[in-house]
Amino acid sequence: MKAIAIEQFGGRDFLKVMELPVPPPGEKEIRIKIKAAGVNYVDVKIRKGLLKERLPCEFPLIPGWDAAGVVDETGPGATRFKKDDAVYAYCRKPVIKDGCYAEYVVVSEEVAAMKPSNMSFDEAGAVPLAGLTAYQSLFEAAQLKGGETILIHAAAGGVGSFAVQLAHDAGAHVIGSSGAANHEYIKSLGAHAAIDYTIRDFRQTVQAMYPDGVDVVFDCVGGDTLTRSVDVLAKKGRLVSILDATVIKQLQENGVRAHYVFVSPNGSQLDHLRQKIEEGSLSTHLAAVLPLTEAARAHEMIETRHTVGKIVLSVGA
Ligand SMILES: NC(=O)c1ccc[n+]([C@@H]2O[C@H](COP(=O)([O-])OP(=O)(O)OC[C@H]3O[C@@H](n4cnc5c(N)ncnc54)[C@H](OP(=O)(O)O)[C@@H]3O)[C@@H](O)[C@H]2O)c1
Q1: Domains of the chain
Q2: pLDDT of 89
């Protein structure tokens, strides 16, 4: 099969088109013929070797953890899907090797769900990792409830765009941070207020608008944005970050209700997101759809840190 893979960690030019074996599905696994592979910033971190201490990696390494496509073959004991079912899945595995920048990927049937019927394969390929991250952060870690106020940093990004919609749908009052150019976009997703983090410290803006603080901060930026977020939390407020587990641990030790989330594959939550999408309360904005062979260009785009919505690689016909 055709795949984009790396044989060592490094720059974008290490992403090469390779001919690799089609993987066979094992016990309770399905093989997906991929039509679209979502691009996430973590793919850049994997390519550079930044996560190699945390996640075992083997070469040749095919990056990419998001797939939408059709079931091509089912392994022994796999019963949830049948051949030709249109599915989507967050495909991270314990060893980072056989990812989704490829014509085929094999995954446990437990991590897949039927593709939303009202989405194209390209749109569906953009959902799993970022959608599950938003879902697990808001509803498992933060336990967000209707009527609460939530500040979402990087509301226009891949994860933030889903978080704004999910929080709005849950009845929360949503404040999104982005550059001014993206304020209309995040309001169109359901944010009640948008703040421009580029013109002044976001704490000043939030404290002026919500003197008692916000119930939840969802941090998709890290660094100063994460540490400063403590200052805008209401009494008993919760802080969730997807960026820095060490800082979160320190905050917990100082009595802050802080949580770090590292997104887990989860087919039933993906099916819940499918329902939201089919009901019309969740959608995705595609910043770019590129052919698989332009994975390096996709990485160049996502490395700007200013993507609006998602980037997807279209695979095959
Ligand atoms: N732990 C996990 O499980 C997990 C899961 C998913 C993602 N992540 C990580 O979370 C981060 C975000 O992921 P993503 O997919 O959402 O990235 P992304 O789509 O590349 O995020 C881009 C967005 O970030 C915004 N942005 C940049 N700097 C900002 C700032 N200081 N304040 C507010 N917004 C800012 C940009 O808005 P403007 O253009 O308006 O500035 C842009 O829309 C990445 O580092 C990713 O690796 C972790």
Answers
A1: 2-127+284-314 (3.90.180.10), 130-260 (3.40.50.720)
A2: 99
